[in-house]
Write a structure and sequence with these properties.
- By secondary structure, the chain is an alpha/beta fold.
- The protein has a single domain, classed as Spore Coat Polysaccharide Biosynthesis Protein SpsA, Chain A, CATH 3.90.550.
- Helix content is about 35%, strand content about 20%.
- The protein contains 9 helices and 10 strands.
- The strands form 2 sheets. Strands 3-2-1-4-7-5-8-10 form an 8-stranded mixed β-sheet, sandwiched between helices. The chain has a two-stranded parallel sheet with strand order 6-9.
- Helix 3 links the parallel strand 2 and strand 3 (about 65).
- Helix 6 (about 135-150) packs parallel to helix 9 (about 215-230).
- It is globular and about 45 Å long.
- The chain starts with a strand and ends in a 23-residue tail after the last strand.
């Protein structure tokens, strides 16, 4: 069984399309995926996010709503992963930015021995489409440099698609303290410290309009979170037993300008 966690804050407009696409995709690949359940984590939304998620529940694709009153994407992902019990789990963004073929690709890699498979827009094989601004480009480059010191060998910590062996991620997720944008970095630090075999894989990724992340307003908080992660896990911020396999060739182009500062869009509420 596969459980898919979707953190959602005020996603009544984008979530229905993502769930429809996911239902069609699962139906088409039922022979590979078997039973799939979606856990939509309502992160203290003030719109109809929870209602539209419940309306999407069906026999073809069960959808369960998990409430998380602690604000921040990291808090929502943590709550969703703690609510899982499947052998295989993943989380993806409510905007559906990552192509759904990533599910089968990650599934195969786990069957071949990976504990964690993360989507990466930093590989030459990835197909990315994003908006570019000078502010986002400058901030994204600086963020990647800082994050890279905490997760050496990983090209893209912030892609909103990550796939796990359930027992591996549930073994560390209770220790995740970062509630905002930089939670991915702390999660990867924890997984590597636990000895997890992490693989990056290329993805198709499109920057979907509707992000509430404003670099000038939220960027400082993201960097502050990285500093706290570095201090909190200072004994692990160095080569550890976990293995990182970069599958493919590093892209000669920089990540999309919005890539490193657009995933976790409500992190600083």
């Amino acid at each position: 069984m596969l459980q898919i966690v979707i953190p959602a804050y005020n996603e009544e407009r984008r979530l229905p399309r993502t769930l429809r696409d996911l239902r069609r995709h699962v139906a088409t690949h039922r022979g590979v995926l078997g039973r799939v359940e979606v856990l939509v984590v309502d992160n203290a939304s003030t719109d109809r996010t929870a209602e539209v998620a419940r309306e999407a529940d069906s026999a073809a694709l069960p959808v369960r709503v998990v409430r998380c009153d602690r604000r921040g994407k990291g808090a929502a992902v943590r709550a969703g992963l703690l609510a899982t019990d499947a052998d295989l789990v993943c989380f993806m963004d409510a905007d559906g930015a990552t192509g759904l073929d990533a599910i089968e690709d990650a599934w195969r890699r786990v069957l071949q021995g990976a504990d964690v498979v993360i989507g990466s827009r930093g590989l030459a094989e990835s197909d990315t489409e994003a908006r570019h601004t000078r502010t986002r480009s400058t901030g994204a480059a600086a963020y990647r440099r800082f994050a890279g010191r905490l997760t050496p060998g990983i090209l893209d910590t912030q892609c909103g698609f990550k796939f796990f062996r359930g027992e591996v991620v549930r073994g560390v997720i209770d220790n995740l303290q970062t509630s905002g944008f930089s939670f991915d970095v702390e999660l990867l630090v924890l997984l590597r410290a636990a000895g997890a075999h992490i693989e990056e894989m290329p993805v198709t990724w499109v920057d979907v309009p509707g992000s509430t992340f404003v670099p000038a307003r939220h960027g400082a908080a993201a960097f502050a979170e990285l500093a706290r992660i570095a201090w909190r896990h200072r004994e692990f911020v160095r080569p550890v037993p976990g293995r990182v396999a970069v599958v493919g060739v590093r892209s000669p182009m920089p990540l999309p300008a919005s890539a490193a500062l657009s995933a976790g869009t409500w992190s600083s509420r």
